[in-house]
Here is the input.
Amino acid sequence: MLYFAYGSNLHHFQMKRRCKDSIFLKKINLKDFRLTFRSKYRAADIEPKKNSIVPGALFEISKSDEKKLDVYEDFPTLYKKHYFYYYGKKVMTYTMVKKSPFKFPTERYLNVVRRGYRDCKLNEKYLKKGLQGS
Here is the structure.
């Protein structure tokens, strides 16, 4: 199945360790969404926003990878699954269940996300925007 990563799972080494079957396919942009950070974990989330984009990574993952991600993402308590279509193919990602107010991420988490942006060659200006809150 196809999986869209936009937070800590962009980090190639961490993603491979967590999901041994995962294959990074390419970077893509999710349109009409924006990146933010929230919850007591100060983790990445996406929310609908017209004319905005969230850069991320498209991965091919196995069924067992998906189960590992479900555990990591605390599905269905913290994150729920969101599906969208990319060139006619169904893609799964996670979005937070409770849309709590913006919370700046921890330095450690942010460093993992930053490394992921570099691994996937994403434009960091969208990460900077996401770190500004509203």
Remarks:
- Strands lie at 2-5, 23-38, 43-60, 79-86, 89-96.
